[in-house]
């Protein structure tokens, strides 16, 4: 069956998930992003690839980095960007998601960048556009529930390739609250597609999804064991807002056992890099000495995120 994100020519139509996205497409996105990193260093930080296109940023859930870097990326490509402020929009008056979409289509939207607390909201929008004959409009998932956060996964792949070059030689550990993390799901999908031979997940048993056994990773319930000799440590935020019951004793307890301290990091390879999608909980999943230390590449991740989002948007709608 054809991947629903690709059109009949194998080109990217929407970006909804990294699950099942072919390796060549991932590599093409990373290769397309590379020259875009240089645009930031120019005096005029603009390319005309999306001139005349209207992009709507629809964020139904909080965001700092993702919303801002999507906006910067679209502006660097000369698109017209509209940020819908959902707390003051008619969604707050009870308008349904698809009614909102229909109204924005009537304003001649070319692309929707969607963040939503419900898993599947961006897929629903893409299906609606297809069913109503408007499949020239593109949808980019900017994070939906626990499901997927594909551009975060891609900027993480860009960062790893930048520092470590060859995915097929790497040991990588993803650490923390995998259960609630759309970021972890997108990272695991991409890293397995790119052929990482040693992919580990380190987490308390209560923060692992039941499906973890089918994800092609090795699980560890001990930080010191799991971090041994890895090249890359990918930390996850402890997602308190998504926890229904008491899955953990306390943040202090969590830090003691699962927090990344300089001492635990010393078990990884000496040149290991430390990543985090943000926002950081200092003193909970990561110690400030690590977050601000020489091995952290957390701020470069943010910068690379602009180029990667430029690549995705230009591949979807570029001229
Ligand atoms: C993540 C998100 O919102 O999914 N942050 C981000 O997009 N940079 C991760 C998180 O909230 O922990």
What is the chain-wise order of helices and strands?
HEHEHEHEHEHEEHEHHEHH
Compute the number of strand runs: 9
Strand residues, percent = 5-15%
Number of helices: 11
Bound ions, cofactors and other small molecules, one mention each: N-carbamoyl-L-aspartate
Rg, please?
A: 19 Å
How are the strands of the largest sheet arranged? 7-6-5-8-9
Task: Calculate the mean pLDDT score and round it.
Answer: 94
Report the helical percentage. Answer: 25-40%
Distance between the termini: 28 Å
Low-confidence runs of at least 5 consecutive residues: none
Keywords:
alpha/beta, five-stranded parallel beta sheet, four-stranded parallel beta sheet, 9 strands, 36% helix
Describe the protein in words.
This protein is an alpha/beta fold and 319 residues long. Helix content is 36%, strand content 14%. The strands form two sheets. It has a five-stranded parallel beta sheet. A four-stranded parallel beta sheet has the order 2-1-3-4, sandwiched between helices. Helix 5 crosses helix 6. The protein binds N-carbamoyl-L-aspartate. N-carbamoyl-L-aspartate binds at residues 65-66, 143, 149, 152, 182-183, 237, 239, 277-278.
Question: How do the strands and helices of this protein lay out in sequence?
Answer:
Blueprint: H1 23-36, E1 54-59, H2 65-76, E2 80-85, H3 97-105, E3 111-116, H4 121-131, E4 138-144, H5 150-164, E5 171-175, H6 182-193, E6 198-202, E7 218-220, H7 223-227, E8 232-235, H8 251-258, H9 262-265, E9 273-275, H10 288-291, H11 298-317
Parallel strand pairs: 1-2, 1-3, 3-4, 5-6, 5-8, 6-7, 8-9
Helix pairs in contact: 1-5, 1-11, 2-11, 5-6, 5-11
The chain binds N-carbamoyl-L-aspartate (NCD).
The site of N-carbamoyl-L-aspartate has 11 residues, from helix 2 and helix 6.
